[in-house]
Structure prediction request, 831 residues.
Amino acid sequence: MVEIPSGSAGAIPSAEVEDVELYHPKSWWTKYVFSQDAKIIAVQYSLTAIAIGLVALVLSWLMRLQLAFPGYFAFIDADHYYQFITMHGMIMVIYLLTALFLGGFGNYLIPLMVGARDMVFPYANMLSYWIYLLAVLILAAGFFAPGGPTGAGWTLYPPQAVLSGTPGGKDWGILLMLSSLIVFIIGFTMGGLNYVVTVLQGRARGMTLMRMPLTVWGIFTATVMALLAFPALFVACVMMLFDRLLGTSFFMPAIVEMGEQLQHGGGSPILFQHLFWFFGHPEVYIVALPAFGIVSDLISTHARKNIFGYRMMVWAIVVIGALSFIVWAHHMYVSGMNPAFGFFFATTTLIIAVPTAIKVYNWVLTLWRGDIHLTLPMLFALAFIVTFVNGGLTGLFLGNVVVDVPLSDTMFVVAHFHMVMGVAPILVIFGAICHWYPKVTGRMLNETLGQIHFWTTFLGTYAIFFPMHYLGLLGVPRRYFEMGETAFVPPSAHTLNIFITVMALIVGAAQMVFLFNLVWSLFRGREAGGNPWRATTLEWQTPQTPPAHGNWGKELPVVYRWAYDYSVPGAAEDFIPQTAPADGGITREVPA
Amino acid sequence: MSVTLIFLAVIAAIIVWWLSGQRLASKPWLETGSVQLPDHHGTDQQQPPVPAVKIGLFVFLGVVGALFSLAVSAYFMRMASTDWWGTPVPRLLWVNTAALALSSVALQWARREAGHGHMESLRPVLAAAFALALFFLVGQVQAWRELTAAGYVLADNPANSFFYMLTGLHGLHILGGLAVLAHTTVRAFASDVQPDRLRLSIDLSAIYSHFMLAVWLLLFALFAGWANDFFDLCRTLLT
Prediction:
């Protein structure tokens, strides 16, 4: 047993009862609607994100219907198709994934996992949610605005984004999109400050950084990255608004539109791409790092084994966060930039594979000879590993300039992107919801419904996205409204498109099973108790389930050990909570 | 994007410095027992811990810094194109700069007074700081009007566009700071104020004000063209 020099083992005085400055709700409104309790805010964030995400899901159905049965549905014309693409992409990446991982899981898990009563700035935290809701409403208003939402593609590249040939370019669409993003970033900054400062300042006694669960590490690092990366999108949006509304030429080159010379001149569309991808690439890891962290915890808990290489996992998270800021131009290989830059960015891109691969190996080694329980969270975590490896491997293809150039405008990119950033994080979200639902509601999810949902989603998404790689290699272009007669695309590709669409409809419908399960279990689910998974981390040690306002009752928890004491030899049970004192009757041998 | 990368390098250095004090090489699976939170401010227990708001402010300044460094990066990248003519710098900007600097100095003074517990004498200083910052803001708007009257309108030239956008963004940040400063000033004049909380408020206002002054000086150097000369100098030295 190694004792830490600065700490006295065993009998240390319990944490004094802190009279923290929590806002105590006085009415139903301030308790459940304008709440400053991070747990309520987390649920609000999650439900809003899921609601707008369902809209994006329906949009993807409409796109798939058009691709499989071109011309069959009269109400889907080219303009609508581009609007669906744009809104689907933007909603899924920013308003669903970012908001759900950071706003939803961040708010719920950070205070509970580090042993704080709440976020350090509860009022700003509340504002953060309401500003996020405003951003969602502005975005959704695009559907009802004259001319509809923007159809510029989710990357909003100028000059086309603000020209009349693009749906919404000269109408309200692009304005609403840009304003919504600006509002979102303002709201996120308020929340982000909370997440970072709570981890820095709000940790319970004994909770050193190296005792934090990897979930907190992932969310923390992702938030720091988001705080540094979102300003790029902010600047880009502001500048494009200037171009569109005030006639400046930040991004707009001299251009003839409908036979008419526009006022713009000299602007640089590439400048926008630099700003956008300076945000856009870290954004991938802003979504991925919380997923990495959560998966680590799910695997360790449900395999009853400590996480393999905890230190390496932490370092990998930090290194990935740093590297992700110097790879952005790999999204711009086809933009005509200097080939020497392409070489540099291809190199940094491939270097990122190293810490990422370390993480994958460590997950697998954690499973090795573990006591694996195939619970719903575990199934989703395993599915994530497989999916992430698949998506990551095609990333190695696209990271190389010479391979990327021919594939860049094909369905191969769509397949890669959806595997690695669509399906993989969504699987983690499902796993995480299954894992923490008992803590949030006090009841277990229905296992049968959960299994149906899992297998349909897991196998179904493979049926959707695996064939897309093949379509991409055939040369089927992405973003095309319809193919028409094309010499190099065989008729079988069309049959494949129909198959993909049918699978997409089925997988989409399976999500209704999940939603039904959430609602049904809320009332009829089995009582969960405080710690149904027999987990070590602090959020499972709260005096009440669901945790009450202030989380911990009178005394804050004191942390005596790291988060992964599962199956410790000699221990009475196969897990030791982080709050269990050092002399809990356990002797442990230090490996030589 | 070189400006942004330099900024990020600075942020990365701060993060690495902080992480290096966090025992990242420890082996938590071998260590059981209570550990105090590693303190970020030396081992001296006499020192009070840094308040969360202050940490929050520093993180926020990091975000603001990222915002401006990205905007300045865009400025340099756009400047490379041929349709760029410099915007003349109105003389009024010198006056404004002086006002903003004096406002910062006044806040620093108020901070010292507060540190010594002179809660009465800092009131006029605080009010002066507020007035000077307000003067700066009004002066900026006046500078806009002078430029527009002289025919340098927003959409005419990218240099103009950047001038208006960057001063506008900076002005909005000053405006936000003013709102907080107004709150603090009003509190300083109230009789039932807790000295500790007031001291903290003044502290935060001063830090924010110094930061925004630094941002403004950099922007001013940019508009006056010195930054470009500096860049050219670096380039000649490197090649």
